[in-house]
Structure formats: C-alpha cells, structure tokens
Design a protein that fits this description.
The protein is an alpha/beta fold. 48% of the residues lie in helices and 14% in strands. The protein has 31 helices and 22 strands. It has a 7-stranded parallel β-sheet with strand order 13-14-12-15-16-11-17. Strand 9, helix 16 and strand 10 form a beta-alpha-beta unit. Helix 9 runs antiparallel to helix 10. The relative contact order is 0.09.
C-alpha cells in the first residue's frame, strides 16, 4: 500500500491518509478524484484494517459505482467491497434488511418512471382524465414536489392507512392533482411499491422512529465517503448527516464549479458551507489537472472565474503545452457545420481516429446542421443519449404530413393518421387495410370512401382528410417553411406536444422549420415541396450508420459529465442556445456558466468553440455566447479576428440581457443610422442614441420632425 501511495501527488496523498473526522476535498476537473477515492478505500482496508462492510462509499450513478467496485477490488484483492452504491441503492439495502419495521415485505417493488407512467394510465382511465388535464411528466414532477416539499409526511398515510382507506381518499378526491396524487399513493400501497423519493424518505422515517435500527447502521458505517458532493440534494444531505453522527468520520469530494443539477434539487451551498455545518473541517484542494493542456486549462479558468458562488481556485495543468483553443464565428449554421467537419477531416488526415472526437451541445435540436454536415462528408457518427435528428419521432411525423400532401402514400398514412388521436386505432386500421386490399386502392382512399360508413363513422377521420385535401390543393407556390408551419398547427400536432409539455420535441420542430427556411434561402424561390422532400430523403436514410466503432460522438453537455475526449467541438455557442433562452435569474446563469466549464474541461488535447451568426427562423439576430466573451482573448485563437464593431454590438446585447436578469426591464439596443419599424408610427431612421435617458431619436418617414422613443419600446430592425 505504501508503494501505491508514492504514485500520488501531495494533495491526493493527504486526501487518502486523512481518515478521521470531517474532511472536504475540493477536487477540480481532471484532478484524479476517483483515483483518490478508490485508494482511500483501499488504504482504510489494507493499512488500517477496517472491514470493507463497515465503509459506505456513495456515488451518483450505478455506472460509476460499478467502476469504483472494480478499482477497489483490484487494489484490495477482496471480493467484499462494502457498500459502494448510489444513495437510492444504499437505501434499498437498508429497507430490505429492516423492512419489518415498516410492515413492508423484503421483496417490495422499486418503481422507475415507466412504472409510474403505467400507474398513471390506470388512474387516467378510471377517472376519465386525459393529457389535457395533466401530462405524465407534469404529474411525476407534482408527485416529487408534494412528497419532498408540500406534503413531506405523505409516507405516514402509506404506512398507517390500509389499502381500502387510501382507496377511499382517492375516490373522494375532486381536484385533478389530488386525484392523481392519492390515486398514485393507493396504487403504490397496493403493490408495495416505492419510488426513488420514497426510498430515502422511508429510510429517514425508520431511523427517526426506531433508534435501535438507526444506531445499528450508524455503528456499522465507521467511514462514510461521498463522491460528487456538489450534486447532493436536501434529503440526501439529511441522510448523510444521520449516518455520520456516531463515528463522525465523513469524507466528501466535490467541485462547486461543476454543480449543474440544481433543477434536480442539488445545491452548491451544501459543499460551500460544509465547514460551517460541521466542526473542525479539514479542507484539501486538488487543483492539479492531468487531463488537459495548459491552453485549455487557461481558458477554463478564465471562464469560471466570472462566477461568484464558488470557492476561489484555479486548475493547474500538469500536461505539456498543446495547441490553442480555436474559436470560429461562422456566418450561419451551415457554415458552422462545414467548419467543424473540415477540422475533423484535417484531424483524420493527421491520423486521429474519429472516436477521439466529440461534439458537445446544450440541447439536442442543435445537432441538425451538424448531422447534415457529417452525412455530407461521409463522417460516421453516433449520438449518445439521443436519436439522430431526422430519426426523431416528431421530425418523422412532420415530414410524413408533408409527404401525405404530395404522395398520400400508405407508409406516411400509417404513421400519422392517428397522431394526434383521431379514434383510428387497431380495429379501424384493420378494416381500412382489408378494404384497400379488396378494392386495390390506397389506405387514404379507403378512409375517404368510408367516412360515413361503419366503423369509421363517428371518428375524427374527416378532419384529417380535410387538412390533407386543403393543402394538396394549395401547396403550389407556397414556401415549404410556411406550409410546414400551417400543417403542424392545423393538424393539432404542435398543440398535442404543448399539451404534453414536450418542450424538447417542440424545439426540434422549430429547428426543422429553420432547416427548411435555410434550404429555401440557399436554393432560391423556385424550391417546391417535391424538391424539398427529395433533398431531405438524403438525410433520412441510414447511410451515416457505417459499420465499426470509429465514429465521432455527439452528446449533450449533461451526458458528457464524467467523460473525457482528446478533441472536443463545443458548438452552438450562441446567446439563447448556450446560455439557454430559459435562463431568467443570475443564479441560473451561473449554473449555465458551470455547465460551459464542464463542457470545456472534457477536452484533453484541443478544444474547438463555434457559433453561428445570421438570424433565426423568427428573424431574431444570433449573437455569440457571453461565455466566449467571458474568456480572456489571450486564451483564444480566432479563425478570423472579429471586428470591434461586431464585438461592441455583442457586448451591448449581453449587457441588456444581464440587466434583465437583475430584474430591470430590457432595453431595445440598436445602432445609429439604422432603419427601424415602429408598430404604430411606421418606418424611420435612428438619428441619435441617448444612453443616459435610454432613448432613440427617430426620424419617421411620415413625420416632419423626429421623435424621442424610449428603448424599452420594441423597434424592429429593417434591412
């Protein structure tokens, strides 16, 4: 063991050998924290003689728990690796061992989201509810809020009330939320099921009510180690506090600069305030980075230094000097994709395998232009935690609506005739299949010929026929982007997604509209529906699914947490994309900056940053991300030096957005000499800008004298 310790740096060695008391390790990205954790476990077992079953090591994913077990097994040679688990996995062990205290069987069910959705289907059917009343996603969120905040002692009902009593409470509920909540508790009790929130709540309740069981576990767990402490939530913090209160040996590892899960209940405050919550805390900083080049680390340090909610520190690169962090301001999204694929081809020509390259992005819809570029250059790729853009359900549905207008083919018909629901289920589809086969016609014709016949009569089939016929007779001469927008609205498809609360899918449809608009502007006014569908077929086939493992990897930044890649392309670095347009507070913006920091620290050898200019489909200008602007210019190499005029415009925009985050009203920043459109006063020209009064002097075309217009009034730029 002593020989192994000599392979560690001083901070890692101090973390491993500091065994007693409350210890906080602030471990920067790429500083070897997993190594320190596994060596510390081995040190406790091999050097101190602690039994593995008396050590609890908590990680945040089952995957990382499995990797930790394997590492520790290799270091100790012992098949017993103690309690190396997630919080929820550990609670399952506790509840199974002591389930008698709660009158639950040892074989209770652990419910995941799909199980909860199955229960919701039962409740919706029993009580005549629909997704218009509440989506499944919203219902799950509501359960979590009520269990963890609004009704934190709900579990007393589950433990103390009989199944029949819970059923009565459910039957008597009137409000939708109450019906769903008590119906869910009833169904849980009936099958002895516990969801993830229940696991920790039931464990804490058992500890509070049964001092003997609590003391048994407190005595057993002589040493407690918690990884990724920046991601801990309130319930997990409470459980940790209870378990460590006997031996008072609590070792936590985390990095406040990588807190990116506050939307799941995590709080950076638990790590930042750890020394104020516990006595005589020893804090160890692990700042040596073994992952990235000094150039990458300098850019990362420069970015995260702009955050205020952090423990002041800087990563120190231990690797040799490498290439610059390369930043590209593209004129549009297609050019951004071409630049990225061009850089990939250069790397490939230098002998770098595609599997050593990763494209990271804030949201899945960003992949559309990147995928198009990869397919065009025949670069193989795979998407982690997502589906290829043109393979996503809502994209295929939308394209099938367009195909129905032109071709009325059976493949498209089968896919979208009942999306949204039109009461055309399996039985009626079987009827149409038989009718079409017997009469030698298409399914669409079969439907049209049977609108007033059983079993089609009484369905919403006529509305579907009317939509297809309406646009089949009017699509010629209409821009495809306009046609797509109208069809998705008139068919009720987008309304269905809004009702479901499927914002990611709506974002993907917005990106599809953007792609159609870009295709039209690239190819000119003569582009028709048939041209577009022929063009898009090139990107909806499986040509990109080349055999083998040498593929570029595409993933969201959240999915990339904990991973590393030699070459990282961080794309879509635009205001409204990264940071997300959903950010409405300074705290949330700090989390977005931490997310950007996590993305950048994934790169080992070289980091590429890119953004796209131009305008969105809605005509809104695109601006480079504030996170690029946050980085010291000395840490970046630009493919083309941006003009000072453009940078000044970007800084104005970001300052305006930051003003809004602080609670002030947004201003409408424009340029002197710019042509603008006022909603009431019409077109005009900006003569002067008064920054103190926050107003423009505008000469409107219809007025003899200029007018002073407040910046808070929207003036639309006119080309």
């Amino acid at each position: 063991m002593l020989e192994l310790l000599e392979t560690l740096n001083e901070a890692q060695k101090e973390a491993v050998t500091s065994t007693e008391g409350y210890i906080r390790v602030v471990a920067g990205a790429g500083s070897g924290k997993t190594r320190a954790l596994s060596y510390r476990f081995a040190y406790l077992v091999n050097a101190l003689g602690i039994m593995p079953g008396h050590i609890l090591c908590v990680t945040f994913t089952n995957k990382s728990a499995n990797e930790m077990r394997q590492r520790i097994h290799l270091l100790t040679g012992d098949n017993d690796t103690g309690y190396i688990n997630t919080f929820h996995g550990f609670c399952v062990s506790v509840l199974q061992e002591d389930s008698h205290a709660l009158q639950y069987p040892k074989s209770f069910l652990v419910l995941d989201n799909s199980d909860i959705d199955d229960i919701l289907k039962i409740i919706y059917e029993e009580r005549g509810l629909s997704l218009r009343d509440k989506t499944f996603s919203s219902a799950r969120d509501m359960f979590e809020i009520r269990k963890c905040k609004d009704e934190p002692e709900y579990y007393l009902d589950m433990l103390n009330m009989s199944v029949d009593a819970l059923k009565e409470k459910y039957d008597n509920a009137k409000k939708v939320d109450d019906i769903l909540f008590y119906g869910y508790l009833y169904q849980e009790k009936k099958c002895f099921g516990l969801d993830y929130n229940d696991l920790i709540k039931f464990t804490l309740y058992m500890f509070s009510e049964h001092a003997d069981i609590r003391l048994k576990w407190q005595k057993r767990l002589e040493y407690i180690m918690i990884d990724e402490f920046q991601d801990i939530d309130g319930l997990q913090y409470e459980l940790m506090d209870v378990l460590s209160s006997y031996h008072k040996n609590l070792f936590i590892v985390g990095d406040p600069d990588q807190t990116i899960y506050t939307w799941r209940g995590a709080s950076v405050g638990f790590l930042l305030g750890f020394d104020q919550s516990y006595p005589n805390v020893k804090t160890i900083y692990m700042n040596d980075n073994y992952r990235s080049t000094p150039q990458i680390i300098a850019a990362c340090n420069s970015l995260i230094d702009k955050n205020s909610q952090r423990l002041k520190k800087s990563l120190i690169a231990q690797n040799e000097s490498g290439e610059s962090v390369l930043c590209h301001f593209a004129p549009n999204t297609a050019d951004e994709a071409d630049w990225i694929t061009g850089q990939m081809l250069v790397l490939k020509g230098m002998g770098v395998p595609y599997r050593n390259m990763a494209v990271l992005y804030r949201a899945h819809y960003v992949t559309r232009t990147i995928e198009t570029g990869l397919i065009k250059e025949k670069i193989p790729y795979t998407i982690y935690s997502g589906v290829q853009f043109y393979g996503r359900m809502e994209i295929k549905d939308a394209l099938c609506y367009l195909r129905m207008i032109l071709y009325r083919d059976d493949v498209s018909f089968r896919r979208i005739v009942n999306v949204p629901k039109r009461n055309l289920g399996k039985r009626r589809m079987a009827f149409l299949e038989k009718y079409a086969a017997d009469n030698g016609c298409s399914l669409y014709m079969a439907l049209g010929e049977n609108l007033e016949n059983e079993p089609i009569k009484g369905t919403k089939a006529k509305s579907f026929i009317n939509i297809i016929e309406k646009y089949a007779n009017s699509y010629e001469g209409m821009p495809v982007s306009e046609l797509l927008t109208k069809v998705l609205e008139d068919s009720g498809y987008e309304e269905m997604l809004r009702t479901e609360g499927a914002q990611d899918r709506l974002d993907n449809l917005a990106e599809l509209k953007q792609s159609v608009f870009e295709y039209e502007t690239t190819c000119g006014e003569e582009v028709g529906l048939e041209d577009y569908l022929r063009h898009i077929a090139l990107f909806t086939n499986a040509d990109s699914d080349i055999e083998g493992n040498d593929k570029v990897r595409l993933m969201t930044v959240h999915a990339a947490k904990g991973l590393e890649f030699p070459y990282v392309f961080l794309c879509g670095m635009n205001e409204g994309i990264f940071p997300s347009r959903k950010i409405h507070s300074l705290d949330a913006m700090e989390e977005e900056r931490r997310l950007a920091f996590v993305a950048m620290t994934r790169a080992q050898k070289r980091l590429f940053l890119s953004e796209a200019g131009g305008q969105t489909f809605e005509g809104i200008p695109r601006y480079p991300s504030r996170f690029i602007m946050d980085i010291d210019e000395k840490c970046l190499e630009f493919t083309q030096e941006p003009s000072q005029e453009m940078m000044q415009r970007v800084r104005k925009y970001i300052a305006n957005e930051s003003r809004h985050l602080k609670g002030a009203e947004k201003l409408n920043f424009l340029e002197k000499g710019q042509r603008v459109e006022h909603a009431i006063l019409g077109a005009g020209t900006i003569l002067d800008i008064d920054t103190e009064e926050e107003s423009y002097l505008v000469q409107f075309d219809t007025m003899p004298t200029p007018r002073q217009i407040a910046m808070k009034v929207r003036l639309k730029p006119v080309d």
